[in-house]
Amino acid sequence: MQPKKDAGISRREFLKLSAVAAAALAVGGGGAGAALSMFGQSNAPAALSNDERLNFYGAHQAGIITAQQKYLYLGSFRIITDSKADLISMLKEWTKFSTLAAAGGYRKSSGNNLLPPADSGEAMDLGAAKLTITYGFGESFFLDDGKDRFGAAGRKPSHLSRIPRMPKDHLDPAFQAGDIAVQVCADDQQIAFHALRNLIRLASGTAILNWMEEGFTSAPPDGKTPRNLFGFKDGTANKLHQSDFDEVVWAGTGEPEWMRGGSYLAYRKIRMLLEVWDRSSLKAQEDTFGRSKESGAAYGAVGEFDPVPVSEQPVDSHVALAKQSRQSIHRRAYSYTGAIEPRTGQLDAGLLFLSYQRNPQEQFIPMLRLMQSRDRLNEYTQHIASALYACPAGVREGEYIGQSLLKDI
Amino acid sequence: MNNQTQALKVLSLSGIILLSACSNATNSNEASNSATTAPAADGQAVDSTIKDSTVKMKAETTKLQDALSKQDGDQVKALGKGINELWLSYENTVRQSFPLEYTEVEKYEMPIFSASAYDKIDFTSLTVTAQNLMGALEKLEQAKPSSESSSELLDKAVANYEAFVKEQATSFAAATKTFAAAVKSGDAEKAKLEYTKARVYFETIEPVAESFGDLDPRIDARLADVENEKDWTGYHRIEKALWADKSLKGQDVYADQLVKDTEELEGKIQDIKLNAKTMVAGAIELINEASTSKITGEEEIFSKTDLVDLAANINGSKTVYLAIIPALNEHNPDLATGIDKQFQDMESLLRSYQENGSYIAYDKLTTEQIRELSDKLSQLSELMTQTAAIL
Fold it and tell me: Which domains can be identified in chain A, with CATH numbers?
């Protein structure tokens, strides 16, 4: 669909935008005013084919229970200043840019053509493509080697700590958690990259990028569960808590105020040994997961979403162990591909495992430990990065990300 | 050799004097649009703080001169540090109120502080610097708020910078002659020493030198830049002979050519006309040079003296920054403060990689140390690009 120039918003486009606004309400609860004000963005383009917009503001951050977009960029930043004022001014710039990018806009230049353009420009005329930008704080933001850098140590959330060493960890020291994580997702890869790239520029002098990962996922059009690079459905269990986000995802009582309505992001970069996997028999593959590869049904069940008959699973299968932990998490994983390993010629590819939960110590870490020590999947995987972040509650219009964490200290 | 070096040092300092020579001329008719007057309300208080601190600086500098004449190394080091601390305590106020005088003090104060970190002190050279610092402080003590318009100040900045570039080109040609003579006499150790010294002049004004067609590749091409190795000439050709081949055999022809080429470059630079745009663009390009070819160790693959080049790029860029402070004060004083802090950070980090006044070899740096330098360069570059707002 080509955008109509000078024709205002057509009825069809208006209906579409209304639907998006409604979705934004459902997701973020940002209020109709906030959703409608997006039309007022002067430098946001008229409706384009991939211009579905999700509100940045809301009671919760977008990008957590938002239906998964196709592309992910995950960036870890290290704050290089001790000045709280500089930190806050960067967070304000980031917030301003996030609302602009979520509305499909871009930064306006000053008009002096001897200066570099304010915006790198590759997202111009592309729309928003459901862009979400989600922020989380790492443990070192609060206490770095025992140092309370921004006076926020007293507000460290209850369950934020380093993920303990696990059996079979192959963690690369280059992938430290860092102080701030930014998860950027969109249905268009260029739009997603544009957002992270400009956040890096806006951070200059205050924070630097430690590392960046890019991921992709492709779901069948009819709402079926997407598959990972082993060819198995990934995220089936998410369907089981669709109405229980308070139970599974949102942090609440016992947390500092800024974290109520927030969530913990657990991250593991898991390399998958694709060559070994591809040479394994279908039976070995299905035994590893405890599911049918094609239908996704657990052993002994008929459909993907049927209850899992645990007695039917191989004891060390992935599904059996997940069920044994009796915990739910909200998965938001993406696949990744990198270069080839020069000595072996094997692919560096796998899973950027991301999950959100209200209490990682209870929901995530025991599950991880169980799987790392016993999961048959370990024969085909290596965990190479690990991190935990506290993602604050959503931002209200006029506030900046992290404001309730940093105010009055 | 020593006398020759001294002469070069003095020559390079005289360029700095030239840089500030025009700064005393004021034009009281142009009171409007003033870029640099001190804040009216507390102007008096600011002025008296500056005066008081400058009197203290002068007293310390007198002690320094005394210690220098007694060749008392420990005392010189202690005073160098003390003078720097004193300067840092009020330099921001000076930069905003008397930018031209600020630039001059900054130029002489920095080398004195740097020397305090060296094991061996070059008393003769520091004596000249201390004398110049005293002169700069006297001017600062008597400074009156400038009443020139920002465009006049910018024109002056360009003229001063142009003089600086020309002087560097002259020093470069002279240093190249010394280098070539060492190469032709077969004295590899001396040639290595002179190589590094000469390159500083070139790297300080690299963007200007690069504007003359094939002259720059003849002087500065790296092996990776040339199509045919047999057409390769210039500094890096001899660098390979000195550090990789360890033989100066057959290098006379390159040494002779290099002298001709640098003299031609000097001649061309004497005729150039710079403007504010090229000056600012050059300053940004210098940082970009540092953050691409120098930080990766690609510039000096045989001699590993990349940090020398990198520091010269930074210094060249800082010279432009110092020249445009009056204009920056008018447009965006916060930017000037930010850049100032970033240069200080950068210089302090670079100082930590000096041993006995020389930079350590690039291959002695760890990946983390290179990354730290690179991050600082990025931040500096990001800020320096914003200086184009004054144009």
Answer: 11-158+173-220+390-406 (3.30.70.100)
In this prediction, residue B58 carries a pLDDT of 95
Q: Could you give the C-alpha distances from A201 to A44, A93, B41, B97, B378, in angstroms and in order?
A: 21, 11, 38, 32, 10
Best B328, B380, B382, B387 member to test A by mutation, with max A CBs in 10 Å, is B382
Domain contains B51: yes
Cβ contact A78:A207 at 8 Å: yes
Cβ-based contacts of A110 with chain B (< 8 Å): 389
Query: What confidence score (pLDDT) does residue A98 get?
Result: 97
For B377, which residue in chain A has the nearest alpha carbon? A205
- Give the pLDDT score at B42: 56
Report residues of chain A scoring pLDDT below 70: 1-49
Q: What is the mean pLDDT of residues B341-367?
A: 93
Chain A residues touching B367 at Cβ < 8 A? none
Domain range enclosing B138: 7-24+39-147
The per-residue pLDDT for range B17-40, each reduced to its tens digit, is: 334 333 333 333 333 333 333 444
Q: Six-digit token pair at B212?
A: 């003359």
Residue where a domain terminates, one of B147, B182, B202: B147
Query: Does B267 lie in the same domain as B362?
Result: yes
- Domain end, chosen from B147, B162, B179, is at B147
The answer, yes or no, to whether ipTM is higher than 0.85 is no
Average pLDDT in chain B:
86
CB A350 within 8 A of CB A381: yes
Which H helix or E strand runs over A72? strand A71-79
Distance CA A139, CA A172 (A): 18
Of A110, A114, A208, the CB nearest to B375: A208
Question: Does one domain contain both B384 and B268?
Answer: yes
**pLDDT for the residue numbered B209:** 84
